[in-house]
Structure formats: C-alpha cells, structure tokens
C-alpha cells in the first residue's frame, strides 16, 4: 500500500498521503490504483510516494514502524521513498484498460543484513537469530517523502536489538535477511555486532563482528557470516493464555504435575489477557526442567492455577494443551476462566415437578434437589425443574388456587458457592445468564382454559445467599423470597417467546451485578408470577429456560 502526494504549481497538495493499493505485478514493476474523492485539475504536478503508507506525517516527514521482531525476510520490513516525478492529472482507466502512465522509481531507505547460516552444528537449520548493534536500528523511523537522498533516522521507541524468528527454519548455507535503519554516522573503532542463533537443539553465540568505519548505507546490503564461538544445549517453551474471563488481572499462573509445581509465571507487568511467555532452559539441567514441564502437561495429571488478588482458580490440563517438536514446546493454557461457568453441555436428564398439570391440588411440593452427578460440578440445587441433557435447565412457578385459597410456589435454581474467591475477600461480581419464557395455557379457571392476561404475569427474582451446598433447598412462596436471600433484581414481565420443546435454543442474555460477595456466596434465580386470581381450581405454570451461566469479577 502506497502513500502518494501530488503537489500543484502553487505549492498545495491535490493528493496528500492518498492510499494506493496494488492490483498487479510484472517482473520488477507493480501497478497501483486508488479511488479519488474528486477529479484532478488539468495542471502539471510533482508526485511523491512512499511504501508502506506511513503511520503519521508532519510536514514532509513521514514516520514508519520498523519492527524489532522480524520474520527473516527483509522485504516485509522495507521502507521505500520515490524519486519525485513530474506528471499531469491522473485519469480513470479507459474501456481498453489503458491507465495513467505515471511511473515512479522507488528507493530503499533501509539497509539489509544478510546472515549466512553455517553448515556447522551437525547441519541443523536455524529458527531464530538475535542481533545487537551499537545504535538504534529499529523503532519509529522518519524519512522525507520529498527527497530520498535524506538519510532516515529512528526518532522514537528506538532499540539496537532485532530478533528474526523464522516460521520455516533456514537450512545450512542459506541466509536470513534483517532490515535495519542506517545509523546517523559511521561506527566507531570499538563498535561490534553481536549475534546469537538457535537451532532445534542448541543456542550458539557467534564471533562478534567489528564495525569500525561501517556506515550501512540505505539501499545497500551487508553479508554477515555467522561463525560459531560457543554453544550450549537449548530448550524452549512458549506458554500462552487466551482472553481474561475472570475480570481481574493475574498476579501469576503456575503449572503443576503429580509431583507438585513445575513452573510459575509472575505477571509483574500487569498484563490483562493473551499473555505470551517465552522460556529458555540451557544445558542438561535445562533439559531436566524442560522435561518436567512437558511431562506435567502431557502426562494427563497436570493442572494450571490462575491466581489474582481476589481469586485462585485451578484448571486441569491434558496433552491437548501442548505441542512438542524436538526441544521446543508450546503450551496453550486457554482463557483465564470465569469464577463460575455452566453451559449444561455435560448435564444429564433429571426432572422433579417440572411439567404442567392442571386442575389438581396435589402439585404443591416445595422439595429442592441437589443436582450432584447431573451437572459438571457439584453444589447446584433446583426445585420445580427439568434438566435437559446437553442443553439447559427449565424452572417453573406454580400458581394454584383451591377453595379460594391461593399460593404461588416459586421454583428455583441455585448456583454452587463461588469457591474460587479467596477467604475474606468482598468483591463485586457480574452474574449473567441466558433466559427465555414459556407459558403453556395461562391458567385453569373452573375447568376452562383461559389465556386472558396470562402473558403479563411472568417475571423472575434474583438474589444471593450463603446457605450450604451440602443439603437441598426447597422452593418457597413468593412472599417469603426476601426473607431467605438478599434480592439484587426483580424483572419486568416476560412474554411467552418460546415453546414447550425449545431446550437448547438461543435465549436473550441478562447481566446483573452483586456487591459484597465472598467465597460462600451463591446466586439464586426464582421463577415468579403475579397471578392472584382466587377461585376453585384456578391453576397455572410459568416456565423459564436458563442457560450459559457466567460469574466474573467486575468493578
């Protein structure tokens, strides 16, 4: 992608850092096109161009990012400035495909170091080269887009270190290219280039290269022979995490196997998510460390503990979390987990008082049931529910009136306690879940089906409590809900948007918060109704599908 300027005879710019994209290549030429905001005036212009399109422009200074981590192909980090050219207005392609004949000659502003891979070290390929120069050679580089003869310079975020990490290792007798920004002046008598390179099994320090008098001119290349000076066995492990679902930055994470902890990373930089750590272990002792980490993860008994200020969560690891190639391994720990997550993917069928029955006074049970053995983790409790294997759970509220005496039995779903929180903490938690409503026939009045007014009677209440997870908890009458928990939410009326067999459907998401939570906190969702009709045989049920329950820390 080019940035192009077109300067008018009056000194203004008809085009200013205009984006041009490539649409064809031919030998040493490339062809570019752009969509202009308006037709150019028919006057002579002076054209300037740079590659890539700069990150910022100030006056005639264009700034580019020259990375300190490169892929071993200098062309991917190249910076070019065109020789200014005079030409008229650019025109649209004709029907015959003839385009404007503006031609620009591009000039390389970087210097290329070509590192030749030695045939020593048993002919092993090189996967990584780390070099150090006595001047800033990478960072934010500024060049004059009107004059390629002006030497570029590193103006900010400068570093004298460059790492070439190769997706495909370079074989012996081939070369690896690195792009550098030329120094402002020639190197001094004591200036040196140092290089360290890695094969699949060894770390090799090369003989330093004396740089006295070298100026590394733009557009030129310097061959560098890597001559081994010393080497040692090298073992490398890359460990990475995914997104932060916990809601709080980590203090550390640690990996353990059957014999205890084998690795710990301290998050001193306060990284939030997508943490990536490269570890190097040297010599035979390093090999022992490498093997202990690999064995802990791939042996089927490994685990990782994510530790934050308020929580500690341990997750099992398996061979699926690691890939090993020779003396190199990558461990993907997955996302930093929620405090609690349940998507019912491993749930088993289980139902108690979970179906609609009309016209009877024998459906007033308030029994609660532990779901241990039916859910992925123990500690769940439910009453008046249907648990659908691999899908989700449905709870209901039973309104029943007999002999003009009515009651509303509110089914419930209780989460386990948030045991991942540390003792003594008091934090604000985010509680989210998917929920959909189903109302079968409204209510039964004197033996006659009647839907009138039923769809505005359904709602839910949500709260927290600290009751033990070791015994089942019964459902309760709506009037006593506030006596058995701390309410955090009472919903508006639900409409009946789902049907009787919509297990596993996509339901709307509800997100709530609760303050002052600790490791004994549990969340509870009640199915409720405002139905108050009192008559002989006036019965009804209100059903709620619940899925994808998530608990995390929030501010």
In words, what does this structure look like?
This protein has 555 residues and is mainly beta. The protein is 4% helix and 49% strand. Strands 7, 12, 15, 17, 18, 19, 21, 24, 27 and 28 form a ten-stranded mixed beta sheet that branches. Strands 29, 30, 33, 34, 35, 37, 41, 43 and 45 form a nine-stranded antiparallel beta sheet that branches. The longest helix is centred in the middle third of the chain and has 16 residues, at 283-298. Residues 444-455 have low confidence and may be disordered.
As residue ranges, the low-confidence spans are: 444-455
| Backbone structural class | mainly beta
Looking at the structure, what is the overall shape? elongated
Say how many strands there are: 45
Beta-strand share of residues:
over 45%
Multimerization status: single chain
Q: Whole-number average pLDDT? A: 90
* Measured distance between first and last alpha carbons: 42 Å
Per-chain topology:
Elements: E1 2-7, E2 13-26, E3 29-33, E4 45-51, E5 56-58, E6 61-66, E7 69-70, E8 80-82, E9 85-87, E10 106-108, E11 111-116, E12 126-132, E13 138-144, E14 153-159, E15 161-170, E16 175-180, E17 192-198, E18 202-206, E19 209-210, E20 221-225, E21 228-240, E22 250-257, E23 260-266, E24 276-282, H1 283-298, E25 303-308, E26 312-316, E27 322-325, E28 328-332, E29 340-342, E30 350-352, E31 369-370, E32 381-383, E33 385-388, E34 392-402, E35 405-410, E36 412-414, E37 427-438, E38 443-445, E39 448-450, E40 458-465, E41 476-477, H2 481-484, E42 486-490, E43 509-517, E44 522-529, E45 538-554
